[in-house]
Amino acid sequence: MRVDHQIKMAAKNYARQRQTPLAEVMRDLLARYVAECATENAQAAPDLLKDRPRQYVDFARLQGLLAAKD
Predict the structure, then answer these.
(1) Tens-place pLDDT, residues 18-41
(2) Which domain of life is it from (predicted)?
(3) Phi and psi at residue 2, in whole multiples of 5°?
């Protein structure tokens, strides 16, 4: 999966501020993102998802999850 440069920078800053390993921050962020997407996808009609690329990442959702972790 590709992660946007802005997400990486935000995660690095968060990890640095919290003195937490970057890998742990990214792993937690990805786990939260996957869980949220799974919940959303379970409620969505399958045809709504067919037009998204396989590597689609919702930047706003990831930023929101990172901000919520503060």
Answers:
(1) 999 999 999 998 888 888 887 777
(2) Bacteria
(3) -90, 140
